[in-house]
Structure formats: C-alpha cells, structure tokens
Amino acid sequence: MSVxxxxxxxxxxxxxxxxxxxNATAAAMKAFRDRADAYLAVHKKVAGELPPLKExxxxxxxxxxxxxxxxxxxxxxxxxxxxxxxxxxxxxxxxLVRADLARRSRADRKALFxxxxxxxxxxxxxxxxxxxxxxxxxxxxLLQSLPPLPEGLEYRFYGHHVILRDxxxxxxxxILRNVIPT
Amino acid sequence: xxxxxxxxLLALCxxxxxxxxxxxxxxxxxxxxxxTRFAVIGDTGTGDKYQDDVARVLLKSRETFPFxxxxxxxxxxxxxERPQDYVRKFxxxxxxxxxxxxxxxxxxxxxxxxNQRLYKPFNMNGERYYTFTKGPIRFFVLDSNYMDxxxxxxxxxxxxxxxxxxxxxxxxxxMYSSGGRHGSExxxxxxxxxxxxxxxxxxxxxxxxxxxxxxxxxKGIHYFTCGGGAKLREGDVVRSPLTAAxxxxxxxxxxxxxxxxxxxxQTISRLGKKVDExxxxxxxxxxxxxxxxxxxxQ
Lengths: 182, 298
Description:
Chain A is mostly helical.
C-alpha cells in the first residue's frame, strides 16, 4: 500500500467513525521532522560542550574538532539503530528516489553515479563517512521532492543506500538501505 | 543599450575567431593597468607531480601577468584530508603564492569534506556558499554538491542586492559540458539558469571535468570549465555544438583580466603554452538571448 493510499484510507476511516481526520502523510512528515530536529538537538548539546571552532589556519584543529564531535554524538546516540530517523517515511523516500532515477536516461543515471565506487565500505549509523568515497551530487530536483531537512543534515547517496549525513560531524545520522536498484 | 549589444556581438566574434586561430605562445601581460586580475584552477588536490607542475607554471605566469587572487573550482583535496594532506595538496604547491599574499577562494567539490570551509586559507568565511567582491566583480561561490532550497534562496537574495558591473559565479559541477564521462549537469542548470538569466549573470566557471572547455555563450552567459589543474581525463571532450574551444591533452589553468567593460582570458597549459584566449564585453543587464546561437546542451 502506498503512503498516499494509506492516507486516504485513514481519512475515510476517520470520517466513518466521526473522529477528527488525520492526514497520515503530513503526520508522518511531521514525525520525521521532529526526529531530525531531535537529532540536531543532540548535536547542538554535544557541540556546546566542546571548545568552539572558528576558521583556522591549522587543519589539525579542524580534523580534531570533527572527530571529537562525531565521537561525542555517537556516544550520546549509542543505541541508535538504522531507520530510526527515517521511520515511517522510509517507503516514501524510497519510492521518490526510485521514481526520480526511473525518469532519468541510462546515460544520466550512469553520469550521476560515475564517481561512486562499485564497492563501498560497509556503513552504519554513527559511522564516520569514509574519506575515500566522494560525496556525489544529490540531484537538486530530487532534493526538492524529498521531505525537507533542518540545516546540518543532508541526504546523500552511498552505494545503493540513502543516508542522512551530519555535515559538521561528518557521520551517518541514519541510513536507508538498498534504495537504489542494482 | 543597443550599442552595447552590438559591441558584445563584435567582441564575441573576435573571441570565436581567436579560438579558431588556435593561439600559440606564452602568457601575455596585462592590457589594462587598473584591471582586476585573477587565476582559475580546478580539481587540484592530488598532491602529485602534475599539481606541482601546474603550480610552478601558475607562479611563473604571475611574473608576466600579476594576478592578485586565485579562484578554486573544487576537489581541493582528493582522498584523505589529514592535516598533512592540507600541506601536501595545497600549502606546499602554492606556497610561493601564499607567501606573496595571493588569496585563494575555494568552492567545494564532490571530493571535499564540507569542513574545509573552516580552513582560513580557502577564504570561505566558514560557509559552504558565499560571496565576495573584487574590483568591478561580484563573485557568487556555490556548493553544487547540494543545491537545496536554502542555498537557492540565499543566492537569489544576494543576486538581487548585487550592484557590481560584473556578476560571476563558480562552483564545481558544469551546467554545460561536452565531457564524455560526466557531461552537462542538467538538474543543476534547471535550478540555476533561471536565476542567472533573471539577475544578469555574466560569467560562470566550473571544474569537475578534468579538462578545459569554453562553451559557446548560452543565452548570453559565458561558461568555462577549468578542471585540469592536476588531474587529466585525456581526450574526454566530445566536441559538440556547445564547444567553442577545448583542451584535453594536458593540464591547464586560466588567467583572467577584468575591467569595467571587458573580460579578457588566457588558458595556459602545464607546459606554459597558451591554448585559448579571448576577450568579450560586458553584456546587457539583465541578460537576454542576444542572437548568439544557443545549443540544446547535452
């Protein structure tokens, strides 16, 4: 059942029982946004406990800060599991990504993933994004069709997966596996 | 206004003519004493011999063509980004320029950790996308890896406020390209081109493709791909109606000189030979299709 069909069913049910109608899609989107905001609240709390980092000539300070921030967030979210932030919008994200890719020509798809290695290291929640894997462009049109993210998180392709990447900590906030067909 | 359009067309013809003549020779010096001069490098961060070679020629060219700053098209650091990588892939190759107080202004490529924005010598003000002004030019430096609504909205706001004579943008992925491996980033074009046309963008630089290409002006906007600052994808230019000039047999960089009314450029190979050059005039504001044939892209 698609998300849209599910939403219509819920509306119908609500109408039949006299309960206040609920737009299931909107509710799912709001719940997703709440979870993303909650993630960033953890990020912000952890970052606030670390020494501030401004522009610097010393790349060691940038690397140290990024590592420390990532490790601290991972520690604070030690029990986080894949799919925890995506939650019930996972099927919607999957279908939007697949529909976008299906619309593209074979050449376009090939160009999009040209720099994604055929085999990427395994990745899970809280892991550091590997330096050896390029951050391939996320198509702007697809980006605009996906549920918006708060600043600090971004969608990225990784192998066949879609991840939520914490931009400043360079770690994986969540992962949605096998979204991209082989 | 009409005179300016005619001037632009005449200058454009001169540009195409110059390119067709396949210029040879060395770096030429400034043509106007008060112009703003800069260099363009892209896809540089390998830390290998080729990056060093190009950096040496870039430095040498400054003796003849004294540019004061360098714009970087992204992929500033390939692979690991440990502190020693910043040294080997940026600080060492460009040390003489850095010592001479030549400023570098970087954009993020798909191989770059966005935290490079915090590295002061890249002059990104801690931001993924930013803007700065030099002489008559307002530069808009974008993060084409992730063109979200926040960035588009920021760009429109900045374009709206811009009063400089020249508007130039640069970012990693080319909106128009004849590259066999990547080609034009059509998605990106769909988002950016309407804003560029609405607010009169004049020149756009990109990298990503490891070669040099000058695109025939598209809807009045001049596009350059300059991504051969260290890596090379030899023979990757599939010449198309887009291509005004291209160089894909060795690494290269660009030198530009901008006065109130004209833009002059030279493209220099790793061996110090000039492989393209031209001049064009400031276009009408805001941009409109100016009679220059526009291809459908790729």
